[in-house]
# Entry
Amino acid sequence: MFLRVSALIYIMVAHLLADATIEVVKSVNKLTTVAVEDGTSATELKELAPKFYRLLINDLTVLTHFDVKDTNQQTDFKSSDSEFANRNVNYVIKFELSRDDQNNLSGKLRLFSNISKKDDFVKSYKIGDDEMYPFLAHHIVADINNHFSMPPVDWLTKYIIFARYTEPKKSEIVVADYTLTYIKTLIGNGLNLFPKWADDKQREFYFTRYNGSTPTLYKMNIISGSLEKILHTEGMLACSDVSADGKELLLTMAPEGQPDIFLYNIETKAKKALTDYQGIDVSGHFIENDSRITFVSDRLGFPNIYATNIRDVNQKTEQLVYYGKNNNSCSSFNNYIVYSSRETENAFSSNTFNLHLISTDTNYVRRLTASGINQFPKFSSDGESVLFIKHFKNQSSLGLIRLNYNKSFLFPLNVGKIQSIDW
Amino acid sequence: MKIKAMAVVSAVVLLFSGCDDEPEAPIPTISQDEQDVLEEVIRDNNQSREDLLNGQSLNESNITSDNLTIGTTLVPAVGSEANDSRRVDSDDTQTLISDNIEYINTQFESIYFDFDRYSIKESMLITVNKNIQLLNNPQVVGKRVVIEGNCDEWGTDEYNYALGLKRAQVVKETLIAEGVLEDRVKVVSYGESNPICLQQKDECWAKNRRVDFKLEEE
# Structure
């Protein structure tokens, strides 16, 4: 049984002679305590095991459901159950890395309950490529999460894909796990931009490549390596979003030299212009069951977030954000929109861009970050987390915000300057 | 349990390969459609960074502010009635010592822009005019030109590329208004991908908010 004791103390002071109300909320949570122990005995894996341990600790911490004890103990994987009684934790997670007969990396998991005094969950894993060991750790933690029937954390085992600059007019497209421990370059040599997963399965992705000075949109299958040319146009071209059924794309392109948002049907190859403002309209994202889009436009003199209906052209464009000096990137999930906003007058000051969360249903704005330059927000596939890039005091980090738990985490970023990212 | 998904990326091939410093991987069949991509890769591999930056000669006096004094004559705004005075006079035609494209590209000057703006500053019109004269030079007039829009590192992904494109487009429209044939001019945005100055300071960012002229390879 998963233990979680919560005590909430509400103190409300209402002033009888005034409308003002002060609400003080104190929340005290006692989380289930867990410890992770390394039971790896194979000498050749002694170097990998500590890294694996650290990944498990980080993943369990990011879940926010556990009080994780970083004891860093190495014990015998098959040790008797009575030994665990000495641990002052509710659960002990033991893992062992080994090689199977085919020399594949194997991982064994024991989730021992100090409450029931027995193994609560046991599972074995295999992986064909040693470099992908971070995903082995992520899958173990996702399984533990599911074992306790906690909200799904599919994002934990998802790839992130991003473009990073390598030198002027050169960039490459890279896939990684969400901690950037595993990194693999998929597309190099040339200017490769705006990678976007084609669907939730993450088997295919769209990206823009410059053929000479002509931006061209491709779709690549990462299993077969096949490459499909979608279209090309002069000026600029970016796939901003893919519809839920994968059949329609929101493209930013400029066939007449004017950057606008187009709805592109993959099957019929039909294009429909959704905006026609004579300034900048970019970054279209589907919202509200793909019936409307949000987008960034400078139609009021500075970049800001707007929405428009894509099925009914008679409906007017609506301004969604009334806060910030420069709101030039956004991501959407159903009715929720997260956007990056410059709050200071000085365009180049140190505290420049913060992330905010809004809903298309309300006027409520929730600020998600407090310091530094926070950009490239992207919702997870379940909409419960936001991935972003943070620059603060000469340090770049990949940030993760767990929206429902009011927690954020930062992972050091040493992969170069990121151009665009998708999750 | 075997995690099938783990094999996905490990099986991924590195397309556009051919570079010595990349790991060898099986190359899938490349259709004719992709031939142009591969040719581009080969060309890229033969270029050094210095080659890429060649031709970006920077005139510091051109990048400071709108208050810049331009000789003794203030160049009129684009679209004004006085535009005819800026048309190329054959006597002013610059002598080019070579018709080599790389050399000619070094003779163009960059057009600089204010932060988050894509209108041509009055102080930049004289530079635009010089470039138009060069485009109308008998050794150049038969060649196509690519107008490359660039931005500083501020702003994010798509918006920066759109901003670069608007800068290139406004220069293109100026060229056409000044008599350059439309089918000679192509625009492209490189967003923040093509900085010529990498330091973290205002003066450096100002150098990156620019439009470059590049003759198209024949």
In short: The two ends of chain A are 33 Å apart (CA to CA).
